[in-house]
Design brief:
two-stranded antiparallel ribbon, mainly alpha, Arc Repressor Mutant, subunit A
Length: 150
């Protein structure tokens, strides 16, 4: 079996451009249908999964700075979708939860996000190819520092 020559520079450019196109499509749809910017959607998903996470949890999961994560939480909280409360186990820390309005907004936005991603991928890839892509991306994430595998 022969090896395939890969132009890694082009591969990098292609990955980045596909990510930007997908980001833009999801962001546009979330803003239009839910008045929710994509940069708020992902932290809301993290907090919902953790039910009581901290700013640092968002930063680690999304690979952003703690300061950037804190600013996002401030904005999302200001919109009424998150609330902070003292951590019962650490008086210096705050726990973050979605408000009822935040949970409703997230539920609706998740359906829109899923639909946009499916349409984006269906335009080019078969179901089998989408499954293979999902597996490859999962393996890549698992092997990166801070992603639970490396």
């Amino acid at each position: 079996m022969g090896s395939i020559d890969v132009d890694h520079s082009k591969l990098f450019s292609d990955l980045v451009r596909v990510e930007i196109s997908l980001w833009d499509a999801v962001d546009k749809s979330l803003r239009e249908h839910h008045d929710l910017p994509l940069p708020w959607f992902e932290p809301m998903r993290v907090i919902h999964r953790m039910s009581g996470g901290r700013v640092i949890d968002i930063a680690e999961e999304l690979r952003i700075t703690v300061g950037g994560s804190s600013k996002l939480v401030d904005r999302i909280e200001g919109a009424g979708y998150m609330k902070r409360s003292p951590d019962p186990n650490d008086g210096r820390a705050m726990r973050i939860q979605l408000t009822p309005a935040g949970r409703r907004k997230l539920r609706a936005a998740e359906k829109t996000q899923s639909t946009v991603v499916q349409r984006f991928l269906d335009a080019t890839l078969s179901s089998d190819s989408q499954g293979q892509l999902a597996g490859v991306l999962e393996r890549l994430r698992e092997t990166q520092p801070g992603e639970g595998g490396g």
